[in-house]
Design brief:
Blueprint lengths: L9 E11 L3 H12 L3 E11 L5 H7 L16 E5 L5 H16 L6 E6 L2 E3 L3 H11 L3 E10 L5 E4 L3 E2 L5 E2 L6 E2 L29 H9 L2 E2 L9 E3 H7 L11 H11 L3 E12 L21 H16 L2 H24 L3 H15 L5 H11 L13 H26 L7 E2 L45 E5 L23 E3 L5 E3 L66 E6 L2 E4 L20 E2 L4 H9 L2 H17 L24 H9 L16 H8 L6 H10 L1 H12 L7 H12 L2 H9 L2 H21 L7 H18 L1 H17 L7 H19 L2 H7 L1 H6 L12 H5 L13 H14 L6 H19 L16 H19 L13 H26 L14 H10 L2 E4 L8 E4 L15 H12 L4 H13 L2 E5 L3 H10 L4 E4 L8 E4 L6 E4 L1 H9 L12 E3 L6 E6 L7 E7 L5 E4 L2 E3 L2 E3 L3 E5 L5 E6 L5 H18 L9
Parallel strand pairs: 1-2, 1-4, 2-3, 6-13, 21-23
Antiparallel strand pairs: 4-12, 5-13, 6-7, 6-12, 7-10, 8-9, 11-13, 14-20, 15-18, 16-17, 18-19, 21-22, 23-25, 24-25, 26-27, 26-29, 28-34, 29-33, 30-31, 30-34, 32-33
Protein name: Glycosyltransferase, GT2 family
InterPro entries: Glycosyltransf_2, Nucleotide-diphossugar_trans
Pfam family, one: Glyco_tranf_2_3
Length: 1259
C-alpha cells in the first residue's frame, strides 16, 4: 500500500549534464524530471549552445541559489553558454572540464548525459546505478528510451550498426514497453479464453515476461540520451569524437568502450522519455556544416559510414571504403528512381563526406588503435547479415499481421478477447520500482557474471512482432471534412437493443462498417502503390486504418480501462504465444464508430501455431495454392491432357516464341521478312514480352508462365484489385477464384490466345488503377498510381487493342460521371490525362498500324485462327466458342451475380455494371463488325473471349460491391445464419463447377509444349547462313506463311503487306493442286522469292507435288511435327542478277522460268533489307532482283546516283543496272520509324520512373 509520506531525497556522486539547443518545448519537463529523481545527481550542469527561443532565460531561472534545498524547483548548479555551432560531444566536454575546475576530479563518480528533450522517469538514475553495482565491469549504461508523447512505445534500447553503416536497434517501429501493462497484459489475466488458445490458466506467467523484458543486456552502444558513463572511462576514451558533433557519436563511443575492454549495458529497468527533436526534424541542425549537413538524414548517413570505417579492422576498412562508396551510388540511383530526394541527398552527401577528406579516417583510426590497447572485442554486438535477414522476416510477419488486423477492423469485426484492466502508466510516468541487486531478475548476468551479449537491447521471444493502428480520431482530415449541407446516411439505420444507432442490418460480428464505396471504390488502385504504406514493411508505422472508438456499454459504468490522454497510434503485438490487440469495441464485440469517446481495449490471445496457421492458411495463400495445383494438373498429361508443362508452347493462335535477342531484334527492325518482306511496324507486344521475359529468362519462359499459371495469376490479381472493398477476405477469395476460372479464360489457354490471357491477368489491376485515379485518396501519390495504371493499360492494349480501348473509355466515362473526392480535382484531372495519353505514346509506332488496319483492333495479336461459330445463348453463358469453352457453367455465375444484385441493390454496383456493359458492347462489335484478320484473306467476325472476360470482371465487381459493408442492409430473411450458410455452400459449389469445367477445358485444344514446327538442324543452319526463306503451307483453316532465315514465329502474321496473304494463298493452292503447269510455275515463283524449303501439310500433298514438279524439288528431312519438307531446285535466291532476256520478262510481270538452273539467273551473296554489291561490266538491260515485296519507299543508287526502283516478277524489288561496272546500293524504307521509337523510349522512361511508388504525404 503506498505511503502518504514522501520519500527522503538522496544524492549520489553523479555529474548530470543537460545539453540544450532551442529546447523551450521540452526543457521544463526535462528539468522537472531531473528534480523528481529518487536518487538525485550531486551536481547538475546545463550547457546552452546558442539557443534563440528563450531557453537561456528558462535555464537561468532554474539555477539553484545558495541555501536552497533539494526540493526547490531550482535544480541546476550552473549554466554554460557556448556558440550555436557547438556539437553535443563538445558541449559535454566543456561541462565536464568546468565541473573538474569547480568541484575537483572524483574518480569514483559517474557522468549522466541528458538531452534537453529527454525526461527520465523518477527511478531512472537509481536503476542505472543499481545495474552498475551488480556489474562492476560496466563502464557505460543506457536506459530504455520511450516515446515522448506515448511512453508505451520503445524507441531505443541499445544501438548497433550493420555492414552498410546503418543504425540497427533490433526493435520494430512500435515496440511496446510490456512491463507497463502489468501481469494481465502479459498473460496472467483471468477470464475466459475467447481466442481459442486454451484456458487462461495455461498462459505463461506475466511476471516472468516482465522479468524477461527488463533484463540488462550487453550491447555495442546505447543512446546518449540518459546514458551513464563512468568517470574514468570518459577520461580514458577522451569523450565523444569531436568529428561527430551530432548523430552516431554515441555508437562510436560505445564501440570504443567495448574495444577498450569495458562493458556497455542496456538497462530496460531504467526509462527515459525522448522526443528525438533533431532526428525527427523538429528543430534544425546548427552544429554540422555542409557537407554532410544540415539535413538530419544526410548527417546520420555520413557519420554512420565514418563510424563503421574508423572502428573496423584494417582489412575491413580499406576494402570497405570502395564497397561502401559503390553501395552509396547504387542506393542513390535507387532513391532517384523512387523519387525520394531526401535519400538521394543523404547518399550524395555521404559520398562527398568520405571522398572529400572531411571524414579524417587515418587520424581517427590511429587514435582508436591507442584506445583499444586492452584488447576488448565487439564480437556478437555488430549486426550481421543473418540478423538482418531474421529481422526482415520478423518485419514481414508484422506486416502480414498488421494487414490482417486492419482488414478485420475495416469490416467492423474484432476477434474475440478479454477486456484489459487499467494499464499502468499508459500515459505518464511509471510507478516506483525497487532498485538494487534484488530488482535484477535471476540470470540477468549470464553464466559467468557478465550480461548476455545481444545486438538488440531488449529480451523478447524470437517471434515477437508489434503492429500499430490509429487511435480514435486520428483519421485523415480530408476523409472527414464537414459537409456544407446536411447529407442523408449512406445506409439505412435501425435502432439497437440498447437504443443506439447501428448502421446497416447485419447481426453483431457481421460486416458492419461505414465507408465511401458507393462511388465505385473498387480496389484502391494499388496497381502502383499502396494508399496507406510507404513501401517499407519495417519502418512504416500504420498511419491509416479504422479510427473507430466506442462509447463504453452502460454495463461497464463508464471507462473500465486505462486510456491514453493523447492522440497516438495504439498498439498490437505478437509476443510468444500472445497476440495482444487493443481495439475499440462495443458490448457485442463489434467495432463501432463514435469519435467522441476514447477507445476501449481488448486482449486477444493467439498461439504461435495458430498464428502460423492463420498466415499459411490465409485466403489469398489458399487461393493461389489451389489455383496453382489446379493449373498444374489440368495442363499436365496425367489425366489425358495435352501436356503443356514442358515449356516452349505453340499451337492454335500461338506460333513459336523467339528467344530474347531475336525478339528485340524483330521489334526494333524496320523491315521484316515475313510474307516476303514488309516495313509494317512490329507489334508492341514484342517489347512487352522482351521486358517481361527479362526476370524469367526470356520471352519463351514468360509466355509459358502466362499460360500455365494463368489461373493463379488472374486469381491473385482479382484478389489484390479488391483489397479496399470492405468485404471479408473469404468472400473476396471466392470471387477471385470464380474470376480465375471464367470459361473465356479456359478457352483462351486451350486455344493459345495470348491476347486474352494477358487481358485475364491485367484487367482487374488496370480497373483498380483507374478507380484509384478517378477517386484519389488525400495525400496519396497520384502520379505513381496514374503512371502504373498507364503501364498496365499499355501492356494490355499491346495484345488486345479492343479491350484496351474499352478500359480507356471506362476511364473517360468515369471521369465525367463519377464525382471525385473534395480537394482532389487537380490530381484527378492530371491522373486521367496521364492514363489516356501515355498508353498511345508507349505503344508507338504500332498505333499507326491500327489506324490503317482496323482488323488488328478487333482480332488482337496472334496468329490467324478462324473464330468458331458461337450463338447468343453461348455468349450469355460466357462461352466464347472453340476448344476449352466447356459446358455452359458460366450461366450459373451470371445467374448468381444477378441474384445477389436483386437481393442487395445499391448504387455501389453501378461501376461494375458499367464495365460489364462496355464489355458487352465490345462483344457485339466482335460479332457484328467483320474485317479481315491478320494473316487472313476474307472478312470474318473476331473471337469474343477477351471482351467476355471484361463482362465477367464487371459482373463479379458488381457482386462484390453488393456484398460489401457499404451496401444497404440485407433483408432479415437473408441475414439469418442458416440462409447465409446455404448461400456460402451454393457459392462454393458454383466455383467447384467452374473448376471442374476448367480442368476439362484445359485438357483440350491445340496448344501444347514442344515448340511447334521446327526444321532439322541442318536446314535451320542453312536458312540462317544464306538468308533463304521457308514456305509453310497451311492445312484446312490455316494460312500459308513465308519467312526468311527461320520458321514462322509469334506476330509474323501482323507484319505482312496487305497483298501478301492473297498471294501466298494462291501459291499454296497451286502447289497442292493437280495442275502440273501451275505447280511448276508456283515452284519457280517461290524460288524467285528466295524460298528454299517448302513444308507441306501432309504426305499426300508432298507426293503429288513431287510428281508434278519433278526435277524442280527434292526431298529434305521432315519437320518436328512430321510434316514433309521439300527443297526447291529452281533458279532463285535472296538476291539475283538477271540477264537482259530474263530481265525483260521480270519487268513485264511474267512468271520465272520453271527450270532447275539457268545461265540467265545468277545468285548474288546479299540479303535484304540492305543490299550493297559491286557488279562488273556487262550487257545493258540487266536487272538486280531483291527477294522482297515491293513497297513504296525502297531506295536504290547505282554508282552513287539514285535510280528508280521497279517491280520484278510482279511483286519483288527490281533495280535496273547499266552496262558499266558500278556499286549498287538498295535499302528498304524505315527512316520514319526511328523518331517514333525515340518518342516511345522517352515516354517509357518517364512512365517507368514516375510509376515507382513514392512515399505518402503526411498531414
Amino acid at each position: 500500500m503506498p505511503s502518504s509520506v514522501p520519500p527522503r531525497v538522496r544524492t549520489v556522486p553523479v555529474l548530470a549534464v543537460v545539453v540544450c539547443h532551442d529546447a523551450r518545448p521540452w526543457l521544463d519537463s526535462t528539468l522537472t524530471a531531473v528534480r523528481q529523481q529518487r536518487l538525485r545527481p550531486r551536481h547538475v550542469l546545463a550547457v546552452d549552445t546558442g539557443s534563440r527561443d528563450g531557453t537561456a532565460d528558462s535555464l537561468a531561472a532554474r539555477i539553484r541559489q545558495p541555501g536552497s534545498g533539494l526540493d526547490s524547483e531550482r535544480v541546476l548548479d550552473g549554466v554554460l553558454t557556448l556558440p550555436r555551432d557547438t556539437g553535443f560531444g563538445a558541449a559535454v566536454r566543456a561541462a565536464v572540464d568546468h565541473a573538474v575546475r569547480r568541484w575537483g576530479d572524483d574518480p569514483g563518480g559517474w557522468i549522466w548525459l541528458l538531452h534537453d528533450d529527454s525526461a527520465p522517469e523518477p527511478d531512472c538514475l537509481a536503476g542505472l546505478l543499481a545495474a552498475a553495482e551488480v556489474a562492476p565491469s560496466a563502464g557505460v549504461l543506457g536506459p530504455l528510451c520511450l516515446d515522448w508523447a506515448d511512453p508505451r512505445l520503445v524507441v531505443s534500447a541499445g544501438l548497433s550498426i550493420d555492414a552498410a553503416g546503418h543504425e540497427q536497434t533490433g526493435i520494430g517501429p512500435a515496440e511496446l514497453d510490456w512491463s507497463r501493462f502489468g501481469t494481465t497484459a502479459t498473460g496472467t489475466g483471468t477470464g475466459t479464453d475467447t481466442a481459442g488458445t486454451g484456458p487462461a490458466s495455461t498462459a505463461p506467467r506475466g511476471d516472468q515476461r516482465v522479468e524477461l523484458f527488463q533484463r540488462s543486456t550487453e550491447v555495442l552502444a546505447v543512446s546518449s540520451a540518459g546514458c551513464l558513463i563512468r568517470w574514468d572511462v570518459w577520461r580514458e576514451l577522451d569523450g565523444f569524437d569531436p568529428a561527430l558533433p551530432l548523430f552516431r557519436d554515441d555508437t562510436d563511443f560505445g564501440w570504443r568502450a567495448n574495444r577498450a575492454g569495458h562493458v556497455v549495458l542496456c538497462v530496460p529497468a531504467a526509462r527515459v522519455r525522448h522526443a528525438r527533436a533533431a532526428s525527427t526534424g523538429l528543430r534544425p541542425l546548427a552544429a554540422v556544416p555542409a557537407p554532410p549537413g544540415p539535413l538530419p538524414r544526410s548527417v546520420d548517413r555520413a557519420h554512420g559510414l565514418r563510424t563503421l570505417l574508423v572502428n573496423a579492422s584494417p582489412l575491413g576498412c580499406w576494402l570497405g571504403l570502395p564497397r561502401l562508396v559503390l553501395l552509396c551510388v547504387l542506393r542513390l540511383l535507387g532513391f532517384a528512381l523512387l523519387r525520394r530526394l531526401d535519400g538521394v541527398r543523404a547518399e550524395l552527401a555521404a559520398v562527398r563526406y568520405l571522398l572529400g577528406g572531411r571524414a579524417g579516417l587515418r587520424a581517427a583510426r590511429a587514435a582508436r588503435r591507442r584506445q583499444a590497447a586492452r584488447g576488448g572485442s565487439v564480437r556478437g554486438l555488430v549486426t550481421s547479415r543473418i540478423t538482418r535477414l531474421r529481422n526482415g522476416f520478423r518485419a514481414g510477419l508484422a506486416h502480414l499481421v498488421r494487414q490482417r488486423v486492419r482488414a478485420d477492423l475495416a469490416l467492423g469485426r474484432a476477434p474475440g478477447g478479454e477486456r484489459l484492466p487499467e494499464v499502468s502508466a499508459a500515459a505518464g510516468g511509471a510507478p516506483a520500482r525497487p532498485v538494487g541487486p534484488d530488482a535484477l531478475p535471476a540470470g540477468a548476468l549470464g553464466r559467468r557474471g557478465h550480461p548476455v551479449r545481444r545486438v538488440a537491447g531488449l529480451r523478447r521471444p524470437a517471434t515477437a512482432v508489434v503492429v500499430a493502428l490509429p487511435a480514435a480520431g486520428s483519421a485523415s482530415p480530408a476523409e472527414h471534412r464537414p459537409s456544407p449541407r446536411p447529407r442523408p446516411s449512406p445506409v439505412p439505420r435501425r435502432r439497437s437493443a440498447a437504443g443506439g444507432d447501428l448502421a446497416g442490418g447485419d447481426p453483431p460480428g457481421g460486416d458492419l462498417a461505414g465507408g465511401d464505396l458507393a462511388g465505385g471504390d473498387l480496389a484502391g488502385g494499388d496497381l502502383a502503390g499502396d494508399d496507406s504504406a510507404s513501401g517499407d514493411p519495417v519502418g512504416d508505422a500504420v498511419d491509416r486504418g479504422v479510427s473507430a472508438p466506442a462509447q463504453p456499454p452502460p454495463s461497464t459504468g463508464g471507462r473500465a480501462l486505462g486510456q491514453p490522454t493523447h492522440d497516438h497510434p495504439v498498439d498490437h503485438g505478437v509476443r510468444g504465444d500472445l497476440w495482444t490487440t487493443r481495439v475499440p469495441v462495443d458490448n457485442s464485440g463489434v467495432v463501432r464508430p463514435d469519435r467522441g469517446a476514447p477507445p476501449e481495449f481488448v486482449l486477444l490471445r493467439l498461439s504461435r501455431a495458430r498464428l502460423l496457421r492463420e498466415l499459411v492458411l490465409a485466403p489469398p495463400v489458399v487461393l493461389v495454392a489451389c489455383l496453382a495445383v489446379l493449373g498444374l494438373l489440368a495442363n499436365s498429361s496425367l489425366f489425358g491432357g495435352v501436356g503443356r508443362l514442358g515449356g516452349d508452347l505453340a499451337g492454335g493462335r500461338l506460333l513459336p516464341v523467339l528467344d530474347l535477342p531475336a525478339t528485340w531484334g524483330s521489334y526494333l527492325a524496320a523491315w521484316h521478312s515475313a510474307g516476303g518482306g514488309s516495313t509494317v511496324p512490329a507489334p508492341a507486344a514484342l517489347a512487352v514480352l522482351g521486358l517481361g521475359g527479362l526476370p524469367l529468362g526470356g520471352p519463351v519462359a514468360a509466355v509459358t508462365a502466362l499460360f500455365v499459371a494463368d489461373a493463379p495469376l488472374a486469381g491473385l490479381a482479382g484478389y489484390l484489385a479488391t483489397r479496399r472493398l470492405r468485404v471479408r477476405r473469404q468472400v473476396r477469395a471466392l470471387v477471385a477464384a470464380g474470376y480465375a476460372l471464367l470459361p473465356p479464360a479456359t478457352a483462351a489457354v486451350a486455344q493459345g490466345r495470348l491476347d486474352a490471357v494477358v487481358v485475364h491477368v491485367l484487367a482487374p489491376l488496370v480497373l483498380a488503377g483507374v478507380v484509384a485515379v478517378l477517386r484519389p485518396a488525400a495525400g496519396a501519390p497520384w502520379l505513381s498510381v496514374a503512371c502504373a495504371t498507364a503501364l498496365g493499360l499499355a501492356a494490355l492494349a499491346a495484345f488486345a487493342p479492343l479491350v484496351g480501348l474499352v478500359l480507356l473509355l471506362a476511364a473517360l466515362i468515369g471521369y465525367v460521371v463519377a464525382p471525385g473526392r473534395p480537394g482532389t480535382t487537380r490530381q484527378r484531372a492530371l491522373g486521367v490525362a496521364a492514363v489516356v495519353l501515355l498508353p498511345p505514346a508507349l505503344l508507338l509506332p504500332w498505333p499507326v498500324l491500327l489506324l490503317r488496319h482496323p482488323g488488328v483492333l478487333l482480332h488482337g495479336v496472334g496468329a490467324y485462327l478462324a473464330a468458331p461459330p458461337v450463338s447468343l445463348p453461348d455468349l450469355l453463358a460466357l462461352r466464347p466458342g472453340g476448344p476449352g469453352s466447356g459446358p455452359a457453367v458460366g450461366a450459373l455465375l451470371v445467374v448468381g451475380v444477378f441474384a445477389v444484385l436483386l437481393a442487395r441493390p445499391s448504387r455501389a454496383v453501378l461501376p461494375g455494371l458499367g464495365v460489364a456493359l462496355l464489355g458487352g458492347l465490345a462483344v457485339a462489335a466482335t460479332r457484328l463488325a467483320r474485317t479481315p484478320p491478320p494473316g487472313g484473306t476474307a472478312a470474318e467476325p473476331a473471337w469474343p473471349g477477351a471482351a467476355l472476360l471484361v463482362v465477367g470482371c464487371g459482373l463479379l465487381w458488381a457482386a462484390l460491391a453488393a456484398a460489401s459493408t457499404t451496401a444497404p442492409a440485407r433483408p432479415r430473411w437473408l441475414a439469418t445464419g442458416s440462409v447465409t450458410r446455404v448461400l456460402a455452400v451454393l457459392a462454393a459449389a458454383g466455383v467447384a463447377a467452374l473448376a471442374t469445367a476448367a480442368v476439362v477445358g484445359l485438357g483440350q485444344g491445340p496448344l501444347r509444349a514442344g515448340g511447334g514446327l521446327r526444321l532439322a538442324s541442318t536446314l535451320t543452319n542453312e536458312l540462317a547462313r544464306t538468308g533463304g526463306a521457308v514456305l509453310v503451307l497451311g492445312g484446312p483453316g490455316q494460312p500459308t506463311r513465308q519467312v526468311s532465315g527461320r520458321v514462322p514465329a509469334l506476330t509474323d502474321d501482323l507484319v505482312t503487306t496487305p497483298a501478301a496473304p492473297d498471294r501466298l494463298a494462291g501459291l499454296a493452292a497451286r502447289l497442292t493442286g493437280t495442275d502440273r503447269a501451275a505447280a511448276r510455275t508456283a515452284v519457280a515463283e517461290a524460288a524467285a522469292g528466295a524460298v528454299v524449303f517448302v513444308v507441306l501439310p501432309d504426305a499426300a500433298s508432298a507426293d503429288r507435288l513431287r510428281d508434278l514438279a519433278a526435277g524442280l524439288v527434292a526431298d529434305a528431312p521432315a519437320a518436328s511435327t512430321g510434316q514433309p519438307v521439300l527443297r526447291l531446285l529452281a533458279a532463285g535466291g535472296a538476291t539475283t542478277l538477271l540477264a537482259p532476256a530474263q530481265a525483260g520478262r521480270a519487268v513485264r510481270g511474267e512468271s520465272p522460268p520453271a527450270q532447275a538452273g539457268s545461265a540467265d539467273i545468277v545468285r548474288v551473296d546479299a540479303t535484304p533489307p540492305e543490299v550493297a554489291v559491286r557488279v562488273s561490266a556487262g550487257p545493258a538491260g540487266r536487272l538486280l532482283v531483291v527477294g522482297a515485296e515491293h513497297e513504296p519507299g525502297w531506295r536504290a543508287s547505282v554508282a552513287g546516283a539514285p535510280v528508280e526502283v521497279g517491280t520484278a516478277w510482279g511483286h519483288l524489288v527490281g533495280v535496273p543496272l547499266p552496262a558499266d561496272a558500278a556499286d549498287v546500293w538498295v535499302r528498304a524504307p524505315g527512316a520514319r520509324r526511328e523518331p517514333l521509337l525515340l518518342v516511345q523510349a522517352a515516354a517509357a522512361l518517364f512512365t517507368l520512373v514516375a510509376a515507382m511508388p513514392g512515399r505518402r504525404r503526411r498531414d
